[in-house]
Design brief:
The chain has 242 residues and is mostly helical. It folds into two domains: 2-202, no CATH class; 214-242, no CATH class. Helix content is 61%, strand content 4%. It has nine helices and two strands, in the order αααααααββαα. Strands 1-2 form a two-stranded antiparallel ribbon. Strand 1 and strand 2 form a beta hairpin. The termini are far apart.
Length: 242
């Protein structure tokens, strides 16, 4: 159970996919024009992460190494299709708002990265919690981005149609519409990452230089992960030194 809690903490704080690893930037910057969009995209990705991690972990000894990535993509695509149909049937407004970014979850580097780096090498239960931690970390991050952009750019939070959880009167505040556009996404993301780094530095939390799925000594020589770019980089550096 301690390992499962560790995987949750890892995804939410230590290796948050958005604020620490800066993965999945395409949906992060594109759909966070509102908090509702952030919640919808985040929870959709979380469901796909958990289910694909579970399935890949259960099949890790069956899938041949030569077709590992194509098999992962087929598994992820199957769950994305299910989520897409469910959203189209029960949440049509959110489905229309997210648009093409729902099927693009298939190629989200967060999902494929966790499948390759963790689920394909570990038992089912820790893999489920790894997917849950990463998914919730992604959800929290893009919901925060969406809420900040929506508040500054539109003067509302969690607006649905004519109603909103928070609405600032125009007589009090004039919205800065640039924050609902592409530049606003970069501004808010940069500020959030800076705040995250400041908090981690204040509490003496250094970024993980060697992920916990690599070898303990950080050496690439004995690593069996042929898909990792670090191994190729290490070998090229050895050649330069020679």
């Amino acid at each position: 159970m301690n390992k499962c809690v560790e995987r949750l903490y890892n995804g939410l704080i230590k290796e948050n996919p958005t604020f620490v690893l800066t993965l999945g930037m395409c949906p992060t910057l594109a759909v966070t024009t509102s908090a509702i969009n952030g919640i919808g995209m985040g929870l959709s990705s979380t469901v796909v992460l958990v289910m694909s991690n579970l399935m890949i972990s259960l099949l890790r000894k069956v899938i041949p190494d030569g077709v590992r990535m194509p098999a992962f993509i087929v598994i992820v695509a199957s769950f994305v299709t299910m989520v897409q149909f469910l959203m189209q049937g029960y949440l049509p407004e959110l489905y229309d708002s997210l648009g093409i970014y729902i099927p693009l979850i298939v190629v989200n580097c967060i999902i494929l990265g966790r499948a390759e780096a963790y689920a394909s090498k570990n038992p089912a239960l820790p893999s489920v919690f790894d997917g849950l931690g990463m998914g919730l970390g992604f959800t929290c991050a893009i919901t925060i981005l969406g809420a900040v952009r929506e508040l500054i750019g539109s003067g509302t939070i969690l607006s649905t149609g004519s109603s909103a959880l928070v609405k600032i009167p125009e007589s009090v505040y004039t919205p800065a519409s640039i924050f609902t556009l592409a530049p606003g996404a970069f501004f808010v993301l940069a500020i959030c990452i800076a705040i995250m780094n400041r908090i981690k530095a204040k509490h003496g939390m250094e970024p993980a230089k060697v992920p916990d799925y690599c070898t303990k000594d950080g050496s690439c020589a004995s690593c069996s992960n042929t898909m990792c770019g670090g191994k190729a980089f290490a070998s090229s550096e050895d050649k330069k030194e020679a």
